[in-house]
Amino acid sequence: MPCRFWAHIIMAYVFTFWTCYVLQKEYQNVATMRLQFMASERRRPDQFTVLVKNVPSDPDESTSELVEHFFLVNHPDYYLLHQVVYNANKLARLVKQKKKKQNWLDYYEVKYTRKPANRPTTRTGCRGLYGTKVDAIDYYTSEIERLTGKIAEEQERVKTDSSCVMPAAFVSFRTRWGAAVCAQTQQTRNPTMWLTEWAPEPCDVYWQNLAIPYVQITIRRLIIAVAFFFLTFFFMIPIAFVQSLATIEGIEKAAPFLNRIVEMSFSKSFITGVLSGIALKLFLMFLPGILMCMSKFEGLTSISSLERRSASKYYLFNLVNVFLGSIITGTAFEQLHSFLNQSPNEIPKTFGVAVPMKATFFITYIMLDGWAGFAGEILRFKPLIMYHLKSAFLVKTEQDREEAMDAGSIGFNTGEPQIQFYILLGLVYAVVTPFLLPFILVFFGFSYLVFRHQVINVYNQEYESAAAFWPDVHGRVIVALLVSQVLLIGLLSTKRAASSTPFLVALAILTIWFDRFCKGRFEPAFVRYPLQEAMMKDTLERAMDPKFNPKAFLETAYVHPVFMEDEEEEEGDGEVDENMEPESKLVPTKRLQSRRSTPALSKMSGGDAGGDCESSPSPPPPMDA
Description:
The longest helix is centred in the N-terminal third of the chain and has 38 residues, at 3-40. This protein has helices spanning 3-40, 63-74, 89-114, 136-160, 176-183, 207-210, 214-234, 236-245, 248-254, 259-262, 265-283, 287-297, 303-329, 336-341, 347-357, 359-379, 381-393, 398-405, 412-432, 437-457, 470-493, 501-521, 524-527, 531-544, 550-554, 564-569; strands spanning 49-53, 79-86, 121-123, 133-135, 165-173, 195-198, 623-624. The strands form two sheets. Strands 6-1-5-2-7 form a five-stranded antiparallel beta sheet. A two-stranded antiparallel sheet has the order 3-4. 62% of the residues lie in helices and 5% in strands. It is built from 26 helices and seven strands. The model is unreliable at 330-335, 568-586 and 591-625 (pLDDT under 50). It is mainly α.
């Protein structure tokens, strides 16, 4: 093997070891900061609450009674109260419709107040564009009354219909320690029943997906996995077509009448340098919305988990289509047929040969998507245009104006995988074409300045995940390292340097070992909450706030938002002693097999689920111990 190839191998080791060192230090720092944050953060309902799924049905007890009985038996010292999950999606849609009608009524009342001589009118069709012409105030008043009646009927149905009670519940405990024990342990001998996990904070709950039965979730995820596979790999077809047209030869073949324009020096520069990047960017505009819809269909129950899942899909899509797809359909487009029919051993060679040839394309992509993207992020052209469009056609009241001006959250499902895509480019080309690295460094320098400003001064914080994204970030950097090593193996194997393969295979093995080491050493801090930390926080809280009433703090935290209005109207049952203990260790049950009070484990706690859940006779307010 020529000596000059050893420089590439040595630099591959240098970049890999440096990346692993930085990753290990950062993983350690982030894990430490996460634990420190969780120890010092303010009191939140999710610290005391567990989401219980796949509650088995019982012929003699409702879901609410069964949950209460199970946790009084198995967690007698720490169980406080629970809130069963209702399928209130239809009710939520009715409430949303009522809010829209109320917004229109407010608009027309203000309009009538300003001009009392003219009674406002509207049409009964969509957004008042067609239909019978009627008095606007009377029409929307009658619509609100009609929806109010339907909402009341639907609320009653949700409270009494057994099909609206889902086999899931939010269970709250007196202490963080009790919640940590429940969330991180198997509840019964049957591992598919009484599944527990930490509840997301109330503002992070995605209520629509709580109504999805647990059995359907596995089927939905299988469907989405197949759909994502076809979306990822068949999306190459339009990208290949557009990329082939975004060349001088492709345009001359597809549109011969443009030959004179194409042959102009300016046109040649634009086509070879910019057009392919613009075409790729246009195809990716609609991708984040599609991936978010797919993640919602999977049944994830929190906004943060939806964004994490969408970010993973987005990164994988970028890896396959934007990176590998651009390599194949660009310089290796003519070799595509042979690539699909060659042996797997030849695939790394095909990619390895094409990678250096696509360096110019990715430099253009970095400048067009990365550098120019920062200007768009600072100027926020898209939100500015959307705000003026909404102001012109949709804004009717001050509430509408506030919603139109809302900056929203930073969007981790798109921003984070895009940044990691540039990490992938940097690691791949660091050894092959180092000329690309200054463009990457400029990108990350601007990234730090721009996003630091946007996070502090512009975007709103939608939820608090306590750095829960970091394990995914770490994993994607490891994937980028492995991709760079495999492509380097393919490239060197085409240069009669096959003897270098063992050295690079050893490097890949070391990278995988490093990933497993970090997962075992640091990832538990992101998956489990140490009982020692929970006990310390509980002890400190009892010392600093001895009058804290957990029941008053938690009883309405996880009530479905559509029921909150009714909850506020109801009178409280009075103060409850925070040190209240269960009156008896014997737990009453309505089960026919045992009408007496039993301290023993419920026979349904480990059984198989069957049939529909019983209807809870009580309204949505949480059941207390």
